[in-house]
């Protein structure tokens, strides 16, 4: 398990540099200092990983030490959370429970890890210095009892396909929304594009490319 290859932000002066933010980003950053776990669920390709990396950049901008932020995706392998945290502590050369620092741990695609709810509940209850973020598919909490086991410990956010406002913002056309009357014709054209481009990956693709999705 190589956690360094997933944490490019540990390199000095590195940032993920994803400037265009969706509305949900601004809702989530209001919860960064709170104790509860933040969960972000949604369909594939809605931009969950992008959002997590934008949050990491934000933390670094707020002077959180880079090594105090851990990102791990369960796409390729599914070790237990304890193994990941042990590896992380070995990497930074300190035990989380022995420091006064606060740590931010991002677990991406966590639904691929069996019994993840009870594992994260243990660390939430015993490691007060860790702020957890998890992302996963829309079925993240479909398992009976999973939501109940984390009751009071988690904020749930849903990242949906792009709203029309997100679409306009990401394309750099905020002025169209700010002055709807003046740009009514332009908005109609944008909306006709939006209908078939509600995922970030295809927002600027032509009609022929979209047909492949």
Notable traits:
213 residues, 5 strands, single chain, 5-stranded parallel β-sheet, disordered C terminus, alpha/beta, Rossmann fold
> What is the arithmetic mean of pLDDT?
83
| Named CATH topology of the largest domain | Rossmann fold
In angstroms, what is the radius of gyration? 19 Å
Number of helices: 9
Number of separate domains: 2
Quick one: CATH class of the largest domain? Alpha Beta
Tell me the series of helices and strands, N- to C-terminal: HEHEHEHEHEHHHH
In CATH terms, the superfamily of the largest domain is: P-loop containing nucleotide triphosphate hydrolases
Strand tally is 5
Poorly predicted runs = 207-213
Strand order across the largest sheet = 2-3-4-1-5
Largest sheet: 5 strands, parallel
**Which architecture of the largest domain does the CATH hierarchy give at level 2?**
3-Layer(aba) Sandwich
Q: Percent range for helical residues? A: 25-40%
3D shape: globular
Strand content: 5-15%
